[in-house]
Specification:
- The chain has 266 residues and is mainly alpha-helical.
- It is 73% helix and 4% strand.
- It has eleven helices and four strands, in the order αββαααααββααααα.
- The strands form two sheets. Strands 1-2 form a two-stranded antiparallel ribbon. A two-stranded antiparallel ribbon has the order 3-4.
- A hairpin with a 2-residue loop joins β1 and β2.
- α2 packs across α10, α4 packs across α8 and α5 runs parallel beside α7.
- The two termini are 21 Å apart.
Length: 266
């Protein structure tokens, strides 16, 4: 039976993951993003870092500073691996949703289940039975069939989206799944309290997003104003959504596991 903490994390993951694709699509104007898409992960990572820092500081003061922290180099560097993969994946989302639309984006998220199962088996050594593997294969076939729109004018089977969109979605599914497995391994592999673990993850995420914005040509030409140009209420809601879904995801992987996280997302 799930605990209240597990239920809250699971439900938050499910709701917030759905709204990410819907808000991303809704924030587009005439098929384009008016804002610099690199700023969405930047602001969301900063938001997550501030929230995690505040929550950790609260726990730290309540414990009178008597918190046993693992700050070894390998522990700190281990947080960089999933942070980098999530950073790439979050930026790919904008291109994929533009190419495929929010509905197909969500349908193809089911590919993450197969990718997660494979990486879960290879990295975490978790075994799945033959029935589970058969169900994963059927799910993958179903994802593929959902993209067929019938015969096109040349007589072949048409697809709902572009080749670029499908290629990036496949890469995104593998990156997200691999990042999730490494994230769970990090969250369950050291003695640090949950909010300090998040603080490490989001510190790396903030570093990666700041670097991406600094080397972006739009920033070099337009200056710091590019950080806020084109943003609207919807884009700021999207930033908040990314921030909260990130924390919810960590909670699911900390207190449940990756299979539960992927099930909630899909």
């Amino acid at each position: 039976r799930m605990t209240p903490t597990q239920i809250i994390a699971f439900m938050a993951q499910m709701i917030l993951t759905c709204s990410v694709s819907l808000l991303t699509h809704a924030s587009m104007e005439n098929g384009k993003y008016a804002y610099n898409t690199l700023t969405i992960p930047l602001f969301s990572e900063i938001t997550k870092l501030l929230m995690s820092s505040a929550l950790f500081f609260k726990d730290y003061t309540e414990a009178d500073g008597k918190v046993d922290l693992d700050t070894e180099v390998h522990t700190v560097l281990a947080a960089a691996v999933p942070a980098l993969m999530y950073f790439i994946s979050n930026n790919l989302n904008f291109i994929i949703i533009k190419e495929l639309g929010p509905t197909n984006f969500q349908l193809l998220n089911n590919l993450k289940i197969l990718a997660t199962a494979v990486f879960f088996r290879l990295i975490m050594k978790v075994h799945l039975n033959r029935m589970q593997w058969r169900m994963l294969v059927m799910l993958t076939i179903g994802c593929t069939m959902s993209q067929l729109t019938g015969c096109n004018k040349d007589g072949g089977s048409g697809l709902a989206g572009s080749t670029l969109g499908y290629g990036l979605k496949l890469c995104n599914a593998c990156l997200t799944a691999l990042g999730s497995v490494f994230c769970e391994k990090f969250l369950k592999g050291n003695r640090n309290p949950f909010h300090f673990q998040n603080l490490l993850l989001y510190s790396w995420g903030t570093v990666f997003t700041i670097f991406s914005v600094l080397i972006d040509s739009k920033m070099m030409v337009g200056g710091i104003s590019q950080l806020v140009n084109g943003h609207s209420l919807l884009s700021f809601c999207l930033i908040a959504n990314y921030a909260f879904v990130g924390i919810a995801t960590s909670g699911v992987m900390k207190y449940l596991d990756n299979i539960a996280k992927t099930f909630a997302a899909t």
